[in-house]
Write a structure and sequence with these properties.
CATH topology of the largest domain in chain A: Rossmann fold
Largest interface: A-B, 41 and 40 residues
Strand order of the largest sheet of chain A: 7-13-12-16-14-15
Strand order of the largest sheet of chain B: 2-1-5-3-4
Radius of gyration of chain A: 24 Å
Number of domains of chain B: 2
Number of helices of chain B: 7
Radius of gyration of chain B: 18 Å
Oligomer: heterodimer
CATH architecture of the largest domain in chain A: 3-Layer(aba) Sandwich
CATH class of the largest domain in chain A: Alpha Beta
Helix content of chain A: 40-55%
Shape of chain B: globular
Largest sheet of chain A: 6 strands, mixed
Strand content of chain B: 15-25%
Number of domains of chain A: 4
CATH superfamily of the largest domain in chain A: NADH-ubiquinone oxidoreductase 51kDa subunit
Number of helices of chain A: 23
Distance between the termini of chain A: 71 Å
């Protein structure tokens, strides 16, 4: 069944709206009003819907980008601030360009983007959508030369594009062998009830952060009535500091697709989607080749493994730069060709998901775990972990440590253990679960990562003593202000106010009243926002206020101070009057 | 058919509801006011302004989108919630350009009336001063995005009642803004008419009907004579009579 709103009817390939817009963006380096009208006609949509989609996603532009379009990550781990140097500024200076503005000759444009999931690969950027890792001043200079010489990316040093996955610790999932089709064969022998029972017995809970019981989710979806059921893999790994899905998509795609197929077997779904974050578009050829292989092996398509009534196939939909689409109902909106604005819940996707039909949405890691569990058994998984957190968890460790990379532990590992293993010394703080998670200091390093203690979707950011926590907080506040979908007032305005307030404190214009202010705003966001983004956007501030009060206090003014720089505020007037003499300045 | 009544409790008062009603529906039907700006009886609720946030135990929910369920004990008219509502109102004030004395909507403006109702004496937060486009292209209708509070009412009214789909909201975060569904993106090229609900439902002065400014003198306008609580409850009764 194809929905006319999502797919181009006149095009037999049933292209997704986001993919059509991406193709136009590739062709014309932007999406013009004419293109929007064309797409609106093709998809039989109001032009306002196409325009609102274009405006929502960071990777779509209404003004032409450069032929070389560069996006620097601004994450605290893979961002452009490296060892006190601003790599983005460096490249901008060498190419004589302002961030966010395409150079007049149309050759190049440079901007920044939220974490691109290269946190274990050093400072990184995306050039025309492809990651370049391990940036340093030397490489920046070479990039400037190559761009000036208009050298096509195909002729750039291959090694620059290398993404080297390093696994430092392996537990259940990364040691178990997985043969494509093996879990499906077992499931087909045992039937749907027993397969579901195996997942239930494992106590597997969602690895995306919320920790909902996976077996229960599958069962709820299976029991929900609808015209069709859907399975969606959430591969929109957007939490800064998380990159384990990037690694899993590359090394365990078969197990992930098999997990989806098993879920389809249990729930009766015939159609599945992988929602892949736009930053990981470079993984698309690999994922498509695994999918094709599985089709040839009879593991996808009609009559899977010869089973008369088991039909299921998977489509990959690539996002276009929006952290909020990791929220499951926003993801569904995006799948439906709309801006990723979280829905009203309840109803939940298990009963009213994609196209209003029962839908299971699982994280990449969850689906891989499910495939392994069905192949082994529930007890195999349940045997490790803690009482309420069965199995293992894959962590993305980055920041100030000697051995950043992938670490798989049984649930319940202490923070100190992880720090010891990754060679982190003189640690000031650790951000568990990314900016939306928890900031902990030394006194909490004995805490365990599990649902009953410190829950995490996998991001593990290490901050050494030399790090300025105020700068980290500003980075996170900027991130949320940028990623807020703008739907509800507290989050839309509140994230912006928090960002401005932290900037003010960093600027040396804050007073003790500002601490009262940010605390109140943080609580307002936590309680009054529409979705998880708003609820968690101020966690880092509240954690810092509680555990690292010096972060803000050290920068406060003791006496009255103007909240803005009056002389700077006159800059506009100076520009208009074309004056810059002494009399146009305040002392 | 027999309607089965269950009850919820709002600030100690027992209120009946029927299946499918939200907390807001049940409250308004019982003439209990929960402050709101983006809700309008008869239109699909949205839940974007968050003024109607109420507490159920330790949980906060938006009353307009949360189904009423038997036995819910809800706090609504508390000082903590009204303080938060005041902050949210102030947020809306600083996000846009709300200069009441120079706005035709003054006295009829729900945002202004909400400020009065919640005892808001200043804007508290620093102004955003955003650049937002004015669309004066239409002969009879003005669109001043500077005053838009992104409540989505015109979007829903146009889609659900006028059946025209004239408006949409585009852009993320504070860049969110109202767009017009026409070939040029201008109101003049849309099929909106002054009699449409979408042209009249704007709670603030973002969408105004031209050439009828100041017909009612300041001092005799809606919120010069009523509180938003009174009119908010009225909107519901009007709708009930229509049913």
């Amino acid at each position: 069944m194809m929905n006319p709103c999502l797919h181009n009817r006149s095009d037999p390939t049933h292209e997704h709206l986001l993919h059509r817009l991406y193709a136009l963006q590739q062709q014309f380096l932007h999406i013009s009003p004419e293109s929007m009208h064309q797409v609106a006609t093709e998809f039989n949509l109001p032009v306002s819907q196409v325009a609102s989609v274009v405006a929502f996603y960071s990777f779509f532009h209404t003004q032409p980008c450069g032929r070389f379009h560069i996006l620097f990550s601004n994450c605290t781990s893979c961002g452009y601030l490296e060892d006190g140097q601003n790599l983005m500024q460096m490249l901008c200076q060498q190419l004589q360009i302002t961030p966010g503005k395409t150079r007049k000759d149309g050759l190049v444009s440079i901007d920044e983007t939220s974490c691109i999931g290269m946190c274990d690969q050093g400072a990184s950027l995306l050039i025309n959508g492809v990651p370049v890792t391990r940036l340093n001043p030397d490489k920046i200079a070479q990039i400037a030369h190559l761009i000036t010489a208009e050298t096509a990316l195909a002729y750039w040093p291959k090694a620059w594009f290398a993404v080297n996955d390093v696994v430092h610790k392996r537990s259940l999932l990364l040691t178990a062998h997985f043969l494509a089709g093996s879990a499906l064969q077992k499931a087909l022998i045992h039937g749907t009830d027993e397969t579901l029972a195996t997942v239930m017995q494992s106590d597997l809970c969602g690895r995306g952060g919320a920790g909902f019981n996976t077996g229960e989710k599958w069962q709820l979806c299976r029991e929900a009535s609808g015209n069709a059921h859907y399975v969606v893999c959430n591969a929109d790994e957007g939490e800064p500091g998380t990159f384990k899905d990037r690694f899993l998509l590359r090394s365990q795609a078969d197990a992930m697709f098999e997990g989806m197929t098993l879920c389809a077997f249990v729930t009766g779904a015939e159609k599945g989607f992988v929602y892949l974050r736009g930053e990981y578009r470079y993984l698309l050829p690999h994922l498509h080749s695994v999918l094709n292989q599985r089709r040839q092996q009879g593991l996808l398509g009609q009559h899977i493994l010869g089973h008369a009534t088991f039909n299921f196939d998977i489509e990959i939909v690539v996002g276009a730069g929006a952290y909020i689409c990791g929220e499951e109902s926003a993801l569904i909106e995006s799948l439906e060709g709309k801006p990723g604005i979280p829905r009203i819940r309840p109803p939940f996707p298990v009963t009213h998901g994609y196209l209003g039909q029962p839908t299971v949405i699982n994280n990449v890691e969850t689906l891989i775990a499910a495939a392994h569990i069905i192949l082994q058994d529930g007890a195999w998984f349940r045997a490790i972990g803690t009482e309420k957190s069965a199995g293992s968890k894959i962590l993305s460790v980055s920041g100030d440590c000697r051995l950043p990379g992938i670490y798989e532990y049984p649930f319940g590992v202490s923070i100190q253990q992880v720090l010891d293993d990754c060679g982190a010394q003189n640690v000031q703080a650790v951000q568990i679960g990314g900016p939306s998670g928890t900031l902990v200091g030394r006194t909490d390093f004995n805490c365990r990562t599990c649902f009953e203690d410190l829950s995490t979707a996998g991001s593990f950011l290490v901050f050494g003593q030399q790090r300025n926590l105020l700068a980290i907080n500003r980075n996170f506040a900027r991130f949320f202000a940028h990623e807020s979908c703008g739907f509800c007032t507290p989050c839309r305005v509140g994230t912006q106010l928090l960002k401005n307030n932290l900037d003010k404190i960093a600027d040396g214009r804050g007073t003790s009243q500002d601490l009262v202010e940010i605390k109140q705003l943080s609580h307002l966001l936590q309680r009054h926002s529409h979705c998880g983004l708003g609820h968690t956007a101020a966690n880092h501030i509240l954690d810092s206020l509680q555990r690292f009060p010096q972060t803000f206090e050290a920068n406060l003014k003791q006496h009255f101070t103007a909240s803005f720089d009056l002389d700077k505020a006159l800059e506009n007037a100076r520009q208009i009057t074309q004056r810059n003499d002494a009399a146009a300045h305040l002392d | 058919m027999q309607t089965i009544h269950d009850t919820i409790i709002i600030d100690g008062q027992e209120i009946p509801f029927t299946k499918g009603q939200t907390i807001m529906d049940a409250a308004l039907a019982a003439r209990v006011y929960i402050p709101h700006l983006c809700h309008y009886p008869g239109l699909t609720p949205s839940g974007n302004c968050r003024l109607c946030t109420v507490d159920i135990g330790s949980k906060s929910v938006a009353a307009c989108i949360t189904p009423a369920a038997a036995g819910q004990e809800i706090s609504n008219n508390t000082s903590a919630l009204n303080d938060a509502r005041k902050s949210i109102t102030q947020m809306l004030f600083v996000e846009g350009d709300h200069i009441c004395p120079s706005c035709e909507k003054t006295g009829n403006c729900k945002l202004q009336a909400m400020g009065y109702y919640l005892g808001m004496l200043d804007e508290h937060f620093p102004q955003f001063y955003q650049h937002r486009e004015v669309d004066a292209s239409h002969a009879r209708i003005l669109l001043d995005r500077g005053r838009c509070i992104l409540c989505d009412l015109c979007v829903r009214a146009s889609r659900e009642v006028d059946k025209k789909n004239v408006f949409a909201i585009a852009g993320r975060g504070t860049e969110a803004h109202l767009i017009v569904n026409s070939s040029t993106g201008k109101l003049a090229d849309s099929n909106i008419e002054p009699g449409d609900l979408a042209a009249n439902i704007c709670p603030v002065g973002a969408i105004l009907i031209k050439e009828q400014g100041y017909q009612v003198p300041i001092g005799q306008r809606i919120y010069d004579q009523h509180t938003i609580q009174e009119t908010g409850l009225q909107e519901n009764s009007v709708k009930k009579n229509d049913d």
